[in-house]
Amino acid sequence: MTVKEDLLYYLWKFGKLHLQNLQTSNKENIQIINLGTHNHHAGPDFFNAQLRIENQLWAGNVEMHVNASDWFVHHHEKDKNYDNVILHVVWNHDIEIHRKDNSVIPTLVLKDYTNFTQIQRYSKLMNTPKKWINCETEFPAITEFQLENWLERLYLERLEKKAAEIEILVKQTKYDWEAVLFRLLAKGFGLKLNSEAFFEAACSVDFSIIRKLSEKQQSLEAFLFGIFGLLSQDVTQEKYYDQLFREYNYLTHKFEYAEKASIPLHFFRTRPANFPTLRASQLATLYHQESNLFSKLITTTSIEDMYAILQVATSVFWETHYTFEKISPKRKKVLSKSFIDVLLINSIIPLKYCYERYLSKPNIENILALLRSITPEKNTIIQKFATKKITIENALQTQALLELKKSYCNTHQCLQCAIGNAILR
């Protein structure tokens, strides 16, 4: 059976071993007083453990390896952070490890004190033939209450990751929160295929320009079309295109803007409703209609109010066009509820969380309530989880399940997962 260090961490951290009559590899009695705190960063695996070995009380760190010789594979003998290791916990004891003063570091061979049934469960979970997720046949193995708590924690982990990315933008813009919102919305309006192109262009612009242009919709639309690379096409005999092109050239001269779009836009494999032309026009309408957009979105606690603010349409020209040159049947093209949901989930709610934390007033319950009031997302991962006999009712759950799949299932972190723990129990 293949054993990984994760199993050793799990067995030690949760006391899943026979704690009575423990002995070192040299037959010295061990009494565990405190297992210590699991360290997820550089350094020994558990800090501040307390042990009694024979009649000597020890306080210090615990290091774990599958093979004792891994101590040298990881070059711990050269790292002073390991000088205070009081116990070496291993699965296979293939060599003695010594301190710098040549004294032996006591070693506990964990496989001698582990429940065999539990190891069988671990082997079944981790070493079965390749599946979509390891616990595919046993998911979920926890109660509905436990699953709800685990999904909430997973969403908060995902929220923290998004917040970390947003905080980089906050520092880059010198705490101009309106500018951060514009960059996040531009990325969101670009959707998957054009998100990076829209985001790069938004980051290249001083947001003060957007503020000034927002009073006149066509000027703002011309500028956004220009920076997104939508005015570099070979379009002939289209009056509106010429108007935008001339306006953009005038504005770049006026504001001394000389950046060029470097990421090409994609129309192919994109539904017409998601064409970058329409999304750029809708973004221009949003900033034309809503002054102080950041303040309005951040201060509201109602999901309905957020929908009302964001439900904007294109300019008139795009009611009969998807591209510059081809006329289509007239239709008012308003942001759909599902598209607004994507903006709320990925941009606005994480930004709201960041801003509240910046003010030292985070309202986690309101954040969770907002997510619970949004319709569940639809994608192949969520569809797969839906076959596992769990009820998926809102976007908090779908975001949590996406985090579960990406950060736990795909990386086989079953022993850090509440579902994996339940199976092993």
UniProtKB/TrEMBL annotation:
InterPro entries per the UniProt record, alphabetical: DUF2851
Pfam families (UniProt xref): DUF2851
Name the record gives this protein: DUF2851 family protein
Phylogenetic placement of the source organism: Bacteria, Pseudomonadati, Bacteroidota, Flavobacteriia, Flavobacteriales
